[in-house]
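Entry type: protein chain
Record version: 2
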Amino acid sequence: MKVLLLKDPKDKDSGPDPYIKELGSYSLEATLIPVLSFEFTSLDSLFEKLSHPECYGGLVFTSPRALEAIKICLKEKSKKEAWSKSLKQMWNIKPTYVVGKATASLVEEIGLIPQGEKAGNAEKLAEYICSREKPNSSVLLFPCGALKREVLPTVLREKGIPLESLTVYQTTQHPDLQESLSSYFSQQGIPASVAFFSPSGVKFCLQHIQKLSGDLINQVKFAAIGPSTAEALQGAGIAVSCTAGSPTPQDLAAAIHTALHPHNRSVPH
């Protein structure tokens, strides 16, 4: 059975994509189609703020892209030296709050220690931050995307925990998306399941998929990586067959397997 994954591939040099591998263990043949392109913005402003850890109580990251923005800044020799010599140590005295394992591992790559990565989504991370921070403490710096959801800022605001958001990337549709989807459907046919990885993915792909599937759309099991993506699908009138328990390859593969075989909950070989 075929599964279409609407996500960007893992870095080319790091072996097979873990989602394809995990679905393969359930004998599901997965294909990746990249959905999004990212444009980084305000990088000077970002590094200016990172250069003043004394002004902040800590950092918040809900997306791997925000860390990619920092890594771009650190490609400049002078900035890299300043980061290695003193800034990294100064930030490490303070908490770095993150959602999910992918974001946590990028935080570690720049030399910081992540906290809260077991919170699989922004709501849970907001609760975690509220349990650790006092109202009216030092402001937390939140580098984020232009399309960020307001859940985390709203919860922190209600609890009186100050947060400074800085938009460091814009999300746009991948230039090859439409063509990639058309050729997948014409070569592979209609997949048994389609997995969405972000609300923006729903926005950019869903109409194409509805058009390409035609009347057979009702046979497709729609999967979501997490609650905000599931919400976006439901908002577009799609019945969500499954949502991953946490945003990991293992949980998504298990959820898709169960949705496709409701009476056979076997474990992967």
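Comment: The mean pLDDT is 93.
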